[in-house]
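From the pipeline queue, job 12 of 40. The input is one protein chain; the requested action is below.

Action: predict structure.
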Amino acid sequence: MTPAREPVDQVMVTVYRAPRSYTGEEMAEISCHGGTVAADVIMKLLIEAGCRPAEPGEFTRRAVLAGKMTLSQAEAVADMAEARSEPAYRCALARYRGALSGLIAGLSNDLSELLAEVEFNLGFDEHDAVSGAVPKTRINRITARLDKTIESAERGRFLIEGANVAIVGRPNAGKSSLFNRLVEGDRAITSPIPGTTRDRVDATVVLAGVPVRLVDTAGLTPRAGKGDCPRRGTVPKTGPKALTALALAQTAKAVEQADIIVALFDGSRPAGPSDRAVIAAIHGRESICVMNKTDLPCRLDGAFAHDCPSCLTPVSCRTGAGIGRLRSRLARSLRAGPGPRLTVNRRQLEALSSCRDALVRAGSAPTLETAALETRSAIDMLSQVDAPATSTDILDRVFARFCIGK
């Protein structure tokens, strides 16, 4: 009721007693009828009575500080709320139920046993600090486990963050047509006239449960393939060259940001300098090579196909032939491999990678004393994933992306 005893709504109040509440504290939850008017009036009355609005993620933050959940479980709460596919939600739910916490606990136990062995050998004979044997077999075993975990996590993060896939190729190779086929709509303008696409066009689709941001780019030329794309501040301000330069700059940016590059070649024409520029642009990058226009007589020479970094997938954007096979190939590239996927965010992946790097240094340490220092460093890095958080900086970083009410 208002201070004037006027009714606002008929509500239900649910009381949660400590320590069995979400935050571990005494809590009460008010459920009112739908819409925003009643909720706004109730919020105003509560603030006038001395309450304040919760900060983003404050309830989950309080739960972490009270020891009700680990840091990785708290991050899983946000990932469940932001999941853009069912597999992404399931993986976040598994982390909320302790899948990552259990893995980290096992690795932490292995590292603690390793440190105990190193320190025992170090204390057994002080001369071993210089000449004692570092337990490389145990270190290599833990490192291999970390490598496998990180490899799976790097793929699994696509479920959380999505993947960027850029379509590149010579002008008029059919990039916009392929883009439209993959997004199942006419998002990009297509024309037989080369150079139709001047700006990046993007759309999001879901493949293998992964949100994929597809980017259609302007055609690459020999100069662009040699790294002659215009740099910031060197783009002409007017004229046709300005449009071309800006388009190539956008293409270079899309290629740089892509997790996977789809390199498209026109199978109805012999390979030319522009196709060689595409090969140069994708050198050393994860890519899928595609030959378009298979509905026409093939004129792409076998020697060029041999130079492609991956086997050519034949498609016809005009008829749709081979598009399903290309989708399957893209989906395989996005999967984390056999077995359940471990999804982690960038903060967690950085901590795992730093742990692995410290352990590698321990394995190559010249003395037991150095090996012990690096092993302690590995334990410290691993603890950042899931240990009870006491650092305000880490907590602020974790809860910055939470919405109010979580």
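Job complete. The CA atoms of residues 289 and 309 lie 7 Å apart.
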